Amino acid sequence: MPRPPRRAAPARSRQGKPWLAWAGYGGLALICVVLVVATFLVVVAPVDLIRDRIAYEVKLHTGRDLVVSGPTSLRLLPRPAITLTDVALSAPDDMGGDPTLTTRTLQAEVQLMSLLTGRPDVRRLVLTQPVIVLAVDAEGRRSWDVGSGRRRGAAAAPGAVPATSAAEPLQGGRRAPTVVAALGSLSAATVHVVGGTIRYVDERSGTRRDIGGLAADLALAEGAGPVDFRGSVEWQGERLAFTGTLSELRTFLEERSAQLSLRLTGQPLVMSYEGTVGGDRPALDGNLRLEAPSVDGLGTLIGQPIAAGRDAGPFSLSSAVSGDGDRLSLSDLRASLGGTSLSGALAVERGSARPHVSGSLRVSQLDLGGMLVRSAAPAEGSPAKGTQVRGFTRRAGAGADWSDDIIDLAPLGLVDADVNLAADGLVYKDIKTGPTRLVLQLKDRVARLTLEDIALYGGRGHGLLALDGSAQVPAATANLELAGVAAQPLLKDALGFDWLEGHATISLALAGQGVSERRIVETLHGRASLTTANGAIDAVDVDKLVRSLAEGSFNGLKAAAGDKTAFKELAATFTITDGIARNDDLRLASSNLRVTGSGSFNLAARTLDYTVRPKLAVSSTSERAVINVANLEVPVRIEGPWDKPSVGLVGQEQIGEAVKEIGKALKSQDVQDAIKGLLGGGDGQQKVKPRDILEKLFKKP
Question: What's the CA angle centered on 244, arms 238 and 248, to 5 degrees?
Fold first, then answer.
């Protein structure tokens, strides 16, 4: 039988595996589609359409105009990206002014297939040289608030490509979706900022601040979820790095609170915040920490001197913080500045010219000199002035003197304040106090320190100190009442002399002007009074002087180490004009001595020219007395530097008057015998006239 014909092998293969053919056809078709799409994107790229769609979406969700003044381009490799050049985002319709955002280029990396839909799916955004303007107008409106599309469009820059008519407001009064809803539909994305600037402008206070050199990376989770950010900025010549996390961007943009963790680090400071941020008025509620190795560097960073340009040491602060942009409360506050620590609670309110601070603080020690005094620059070619002591220059090899260091009241312009202070002590140069309660009122660069109660030098006091830094030449006033203070250590620390002992009551009403301690003293005017009980005047013993005169012991008229004039009471008042303190009512009383006096103190030169007139109240009972000096007034002159004055009897005219008085009271035979015994006069010797002896007696030693 003939054999049946055989089937062709190729036919069986095609019928057995048809999917291979379909796969081949499908692969070829897909390649063709990709080639067509690629050709379309490269040759006939819908960049204008995409640009207009972006502008439309911005207008739809924010109410702002996006103006693109430069060319728009598209690239496919390594990842598809759209680049817009010279881009500006307008300010809100009811504010006007500069655009909220301008950037040299805005590059958006997108999903390839999203380009075909006209709704780019942005995965990465790069802004080159952006300028972000955060403005607050006189009505309190903020440029970063977003709203519906009501704006009719901003004027395009010359040569700008119109965004599109699709960017016009929606018709029929339909409200545009919020930017939150738009962000909620986005995929996870990153934002990269290169060479940016943040500009803050507040028309209410006239504040204008620029932060440059912004470099940042933000990672935004899908659906406007958590945001991680890091980067750095340049401020006042310092580079500051920042890192942080916002728990949910969507919540924050819906004006609800979100958790914020922020850390700012740099050479001048380390700052951190942990808590919430946000709300209908951006508010904080968390914990703040700040550390600065140098308070001088911190002052430079914020553009305001904190300690008169002199480094007061490291600064640290920790506090619970709550409030918004208008009022911030600092509770459980702990801070330190140099060797001073403080605690308490403060509230900071935004003012028209400067913030206003109120509250109560407990301070370990308040160093006024350290806060307000900075070293004066030495003259060219002059040697170093000396060492710094509590804010003042102590001159090497020189005696006590007023300081030429600058009293800088610039820190008074930092804030206005009403603060109750309880200090363990106050320090100003060498003056030190104990526990003090005071109220600080600071307004328009004028500080008033009301000393409600102050413990110092064994006594107590109260009064008012005022520092006026509002004028070109600073001014200071003091109205103080001190009771029971130890006169010797107080006057030594305040004025540099220590020859008055006793417990004193002092009243001061003084005022002066100048940029240094010396200049203030030179212009000082006002009144002062002093009453001292159960004390002594060192360096002179007036009682011994008069007693020696009565006994004819002329050597006793010279001052000696350890001499003192004890008294039960000393009182005097002074009128001060241009740094010269004049007195004509000195009264000193002891058991058998009465002293009056008058003269002047040159406060600027630290010298005195003073005459005291002692008078014995009763007749001397000394067995050696040869002269009756009861009720005899013997003028004594004290002059020279007040820390080491010279003491002597007055000049020739006063001596003559004293001689006349003594002559009336001479016990002639006794005094002749005393003179002969003291000066060698007698039989066979040259006679000595009593008047010559007395004149010699009254000459200054």
Answer: 145
Residue 85 shares a structural domain with residue 202 = yes
Residue type, 248: E
Rounded CA gap, 641 and 107, in Å?
A: 79
Burial of 44 (0-12, 13-18, 19+ CB in 10 A): exposed
Beta strand 564-577 with 525-538: parallel, antiparallel or unpaired? antiparallel
Return d(Cα 284, Cα 329) in angstroms, integer: 10
Distances (CA, A) of 665 to 31, 35, 631, 668: 141, 138, 11, 9
With respect to residue 632, please indicate whether it lies within any of the assigned structural domains: yes
The count of residues in the chain is 701
Q: What are phi and psi of 611, to 5 degrees?
A: -120, 125
Gyration radius of the chain over CA positions: 44
- How many alpha carbons fall within 13 Å on the CB side of residue 608? 22
Residue 373, φ and ψ in degrees, nearest 5: -115, 130
Query: Do both 565 and 519 map to the same domain?
Result: no
Residue 404 near residue 376, CB atoms below 8 Å: yes
Is there a single domain that holds both residue 355 and residue 465?
A: yes
Q: Rounded to 5 degrees, what angle do the CA atoms 55, 59, 64 make? A: 105
Find out whether 409 and 513 touch, Cβ atoms under 8 Å.
Answer: no
Place of tokens 């897909």: 30
Give the tokens for residue 208: 């204008």
Around 185, how many Cα atoms within 13 Å sit in the side-chain half-sphere?
Answer: 10
> Which residues does residue 464 pair with via DSSP β-bridges, in sequence order?
450, 479
Query: In a 10 Å sphere around its CB, with 0-12 CB exposed, 13-18 middle and 19+ buried, how is residue 595 labelled?
Result: buried
Q: What stretches of 279-381 show up as alpha helix (H) in DSSP?
A: 295-302, 368-372
Neighbouring CB atoms inside 10 A of 319's CB total: 21
Q: What is the mean pLDDT of residues 193-204?
A: 88
d(CA 459, CA 665): 46
**How does pLDDT run across 528-544, given as a tens digit for each residue?**
999 999 988 886 776 67
- Of 698 and 158, the structure prediction assigns the larger pLDDT to 698
For the record, the structure tokens of 197 come out as: 């600037």
Can you tell me the distance from the alpha carbon of 460 to that of 442, in angstroms, rounded to the nearest whole number? Answer: 25
Give the count of domains, the chain: 3
Which DSSP category does 420 fall into? Answer: E
Phi-psi region of 690 (alpha: psi -120 to 50; beta: other; left: phi over 0): alpha
Q: What is the pLDDT of residue 541?
A: 72
Comparing 655 with 576, which gets the higher pLDDT?
Answer: 576
What three-state secondary structure class fits 662?
helix
| 8 A C-beta contact, residue 307 and residue 339 | no
Same domain, 488 and 573: no
3-state helix, strand, coil in the chain (%, to 5): 20, 45, 35
Q: Cis omega before residue 162 (within 30°)?
A: no
* Domain around 500: 351-376+387-523
Q: Nearest 10 degrees: CA dihedral of 593, 596, 602, 607?
A: -30
Which residues are CB-neighbours of 144 under 8 A, at least 6 positions away?
Answer: 100, 134
Question: Per-residue pLDDT tens for 247-287?
Answer: 988 887 777 888 999 999 998 889 999 999 887 667 889 99
Query: Buried b / exposed e across 218-243, counting CB within 10 Å, b at 16+?
Result: bebbeebbbbebebbbbbeeeebebe
The residue to which tokens 């009442």 are assigned: 481
Of 170, 201, 224, the domain-final residue:
224
Residue 568's identity, in one-letter code, is: K
Is 519 part of a structural domain of the chain?
yes
